[in-house]
Write a structure and sequence with these properties.
This protein has 602 residues and is an alpha+beta fold. It is built from nine helices and 17 strands. It has three domains: 2-116 and 562-578 and 587-599, no CATH class; 121-152 and 168-219, Immunoglobulin-like; 262-533. Residues 1-24 form the signal peptide.
Length: 602
C-alpha cells in the first residue's frame, strides 16, 4: 500500500515538473544573494598515520555557525574541497575558499598535503626483545612491547603543543592480549576488550610503553585525540595540610630553640671543663712536686731522728766528769737540728698553701659543671629530632662523663679537704719541736755558766728522750703521709689525663653543637613559611596546567577568523592479516539533485 502511494506521489511530481521552472539555485550554480556571516568556526583535523607513526593523509572538516545566510569566505591550502551540507558548489582559488551558506550549521571538507602536525609521533615494536616492523608482527606469538613517543614538531605552530592535552588510546582484544602492563597509563575493560589510555599534558613530551603476552597478533588502530586543555583548574583544599605544615614549622622552630639552649649549655660545659683542666693542671703540678720532694723530706727527717738518737746516747754515756766542749757541740747540734726542722716546717707550710690553691681550683672547676638532669626520654627525643646522630652521641657521652666526674669528686671531696688540715697540723708539730729544741739549746748554754752540770745533764737527758720519742712518732707519720702523697700523685696523673680528654671532647662537642644549631636554624628558616610556600607552589602548578585563557587559532590558515575550537583526531593503520583487511570503501559518486530526490521515495 505504501509502495503504491509513493509511486503515485512520484508520478504526480513528474507530471507537474515541466510546469515548474528549474532555478539556477537547484543546479548549484546560483551565487548567494549578499554577503553572509557566522559567529564561530570550528576545525576538526583528521589524520591517518602508518603503524609506525609516519603521516599519510590529512583532511579538515570545517564547521560554521551561520548568523546570516550568504557568501562566506574561508582560507586554507587545500588540494581539494567538498561540500558536506548541501550540493551547492564551493569556489576555490588558491587558498581562498568561497561558499554559499544557507543552513544554520554548515560543513565542508578540505584535503591537505604536506601540512605537519604539531606533534612528531613515533611508534616502535619489539617481540621477545627483537625490534620488528609492524607488518612482521601479524600472527606472531610472544612477549610484545610497544613504545610510543610524542615530541614537539618544530615545523608546526607551537601554540597547539603548548596548550593541547593529548589522549592516546589503544584497544586490545582480550583473546589476543594477556598480562597487559602499562606503567604510565590506565587499563580498563571495554566489553570483551581492554582499553589502555595514556595522557600527555600541554608543553610536555610523552614516552610510554606497553607490554603484553600475545597470541596470533593483530592490533587495532592507535588513536590520538588532542583537544585544548581549556578547563579551569581549581586549587585543591589544603586547609588540613596547611595546619599540619604549620605544626611542623612550629616544631622545627622549637627544635631550633632547644638546640640553641643546648648549644649554650654545652658552651658553659666546655668553659667549665676548661677551667677544670686548668685547676687540675695546677693541682697535678703541685702534687707531683710534693711527691718528688717526699723522699728528700723523709731522708731529712731520718737524719734528724738519727741525730737525736746519737745525741741522746752521747748524753747517756757521759761520766761524772763532764766534757764542757761536748755540751758546746751539743748546743750547736740542737740549734742545727732546730734549723733543719724549721726548713721542713716551711716546706710543709708551702706545700699546704700550694695544695690549698690547687684544691680550690679543682673544686671550682668541678662545681662549674652544670648539674642538668637529662632524662632518657629527652635523649631519645633528641635522637629522633633528625639531628646528626654522631653529634648527638658525642653530646650524650660528654654529658655522662661530666656527670661521672662531678659525682666522683663529690664522693672524695672530704678526703681532699682533709689533706690541708693534716699538712697544717704537721707543720704545727714541727714548729713546736723546733721551739723545744731551741729552748733546750738555750738551757744548755745557760747551764754551762750558772747551773750545776750534773743536774743539767740529767734534765737534758730526760728532754732528749722525750723529744726522741715524739719525733719517732712524727717520723712514722711523715712516712705514711709521703707514701699517701706518692700514691695520690700516681693516681691523679690518670685523672688529669682523663680531664684533658674531657676538655678536648667538650671543645669538639661545642663545635658540633654549633654546626647542629646552624643546621636547625636553616631548617627552621626554610620551614618557617611552609603554608605560604605551599599556596605559592600550588598556584604555580595551577597556572602551569590552566589553559582556560587560551585563544584558539586556525590550524589551516592564520587568515581565518572567529575560530571557536580546533581539534585533532589522529589514528594509525591497524595491524591485521591481509584477508581480513577491510577494503577501502569506493568513493561514492557525487549525487545529483535528481538522485537525492529519488532517494526520498526509495
Amino acid at each position: 500500500m505504501r509502495f503504491k502511494r509513493a509511486t503515485a506521489m512520484f508520478t504526480a511530481f513528474l507530471l507537474i515538473l515541466p510546469t515548474v521552472p528549474v532555478s539556477a539555485e537547484d543546479n548549484g550554480t546560483t551565487e548567494p544573494e549578499g554577503k553572509g556571516s557566522y559567529s564561530k568556526k570550528h576545525e576538526v583535523v583528521y589524520t591517518t598515520l602508518d603503524a609506525s607513526g609516519d603521516q599519510e593523509e590529512m583532511y579538515v572538516v570545517n564547521n560554521f555557525t551561520i548568523e546570516e545566510p550568504g557568501k562566506i569566505v574561508d582560507y586554507g591550502p587545500y588540494t581539494s574541497v567538498q561540500n558536506l551540507t548541501d550540493v551547492t558548489e564551493i569556489q576555490q582559488q588558491n587558498e581562498k575558499v568561497e561558499l554559499n551558506a544557507k543552513e544554520e550549521e554548515y560543513y565542508y571538507q578540505g584535503n591537505l598535503e604536506g601540512k605537519p602536525l604539531p606533534w612528531d609521533i613515533d611508534v616502535s615494536y619489539q617481540l621477545d626483545g627483537e625490534v620488528m616492523n609492524p607488518e612482521e608482527l601479524v600472527g606472531k606469538d610472544g612477549k610484545l612491547k610497544v613504545s610510543i613517543d610524542t615530541t614537539k614538531n618544530e615545523k608546526a605552530d607551537e601554540s597547539f603543543f603548548n596548550n593541547y592535552l593529548m589522549q592516546i588510546t589503544m584497544k586490545l582484544d582480550s583473546m589476543v592480549y594477556e598480562n597487559i602492563q602499562a606503567p604510565e597509563g590506565t587499563v580498563a575493560n571495554a566489553g570483551k576488550d581492554r582499553q589502555v589510555t595514556f595522557t600527555v599534558m600541554p608543553e610536555k613530551e610523552g614516552s610510554f610503553t606497553l607490554t603484553a603476552d600475545v597470541t596470533d597478533l593483530e592490533m587495532e588502530s592507535i588513536e590520538f585525540a588532542a583537544i585544548p586543555s581549556s578547563m579551569s583548574i581549581d586549587a585543591p583544599d589544603i586547609g588540613g595540610m596547611k595546619n599540619d605544615m604549620g605544626s611542623l614549622s612550629n616544631a622545627t622552630a622549637e627544635i631550633n630553640q632547644g638546640v640553641g639552649e643546648l648549644r649554650n649549655g654545652i658552651a658553659e660545659l666546655n668553659d667549665g671543663a676548661a677551667s677544670l683542666y686548668d685547676g687540675s693542671k695546677q693541682f697535678n703540678s703541685g702534687i707531683q712536686g710534693v711527691s718528688n720532694g717526699s723522699s728528700e723530706l723523709v731522708e731529712g727527717s731520718a737524719s734528724i731522728q738519727n741525730a737525736l738518737q746519737q745525741m741522746n746516747e752521747a748524753v747517756a754515756s757521759e761520766s761524772g766528769e763532764v766534757n764542757v766542749s761536748g755540751f758546746a757541740k751539743m748546743e750547736e747540734g740542737l740549734r742545727q737540728l732546730s734549723t733543719g726542722l724549721n726548713e721542713v716546717e716551711k716546706g710543709l707550710t708551702n706545700l699546704k698553701d700550694q695544695y690549698s690553691q690547687a684544691h680550690q681550683a679543682l673544686s671550682q672547676s668541678i662545681e662549674a659543671i652544670p648539674g642538668y638532669q637529662i632524662s632518657e626520654q629527652e635523649i631519645q627525643a633528641l635522637r629522633e629530632s633528625g639531628a646528626d646522630q654522631e653529634v648527638v652521641n658525642k653530646l650524650v657521652e660528654t654529658y655522662q662523663a661530666a656527670q661521672t666526674a662531678k659525682g666522683t669528686y663529690a664522693n672524695v671531696k672530704e678526703a681532699y679537704q682533709a689533706v690541708g688540715p693534716a699538712l697544717e697540723q704537721s707543720a704545727g708539730s714541727l714548729n713546736e719541736m723546733t721551739t723545744n729544741l731551741n729552748t733546750m739549746a738555750d738551757q744548755i748554754g745557760t747551764s754551762m755558766e750558772s747551773m750545776d752540770i750534773g743536774d743539767s745533764v740529767q734534765q737534758l737527758q730526760e728532754g732528749l728522750q722525750s723529744l726522741l720519742s715524739k719525733y719517732g712518732e712524727f717520723h712514722e707519720g711523715l712516712k705514711d703521709y709521703t707514701g699517701g702523697v706518692d700514691q695520690l700523685a700516681g693516681s691523679y696523673a690518670d685523672i688529669h689525663s682523663g680531664m684533658g680528654s674531657l676538655t678536648n671532647g667538650t671543645a669538639e662537642l661545642e663545635n658540633g653543637a654549633a654546626e647542629l644549631h646552624e643546621g636547625t636554624s636553616e631548617l627552621a628558616s626554610n620551614t618557617s613559611n611552609l603554608p605560604g610556600e605551599m599556596d605559592s607552589e600550588i598556584e604555580k602548578m595551577v597556572e602551569e596546567y590552566d589553559k582556560s585563557d587560551f585563544e584558539p587559532t586556525s590550524f589551516v590558515s592564520e587568515k581565518n577568523e572567529k575560530v571557536g575550537s580546533v581539534q585533532f583526531l589522529i589514528k594509525t593503520e591497524s595491524i591485521k592479516k591481509d584477508e581480513e583487511q577491510e577494503e577501502a570503501p569506493e568513493k561514492e559518486e557525487e549525487k545529483s539533485f535528481w538522485d537525492r530526490l529519488l532517494d526520498l521515495f526509495r
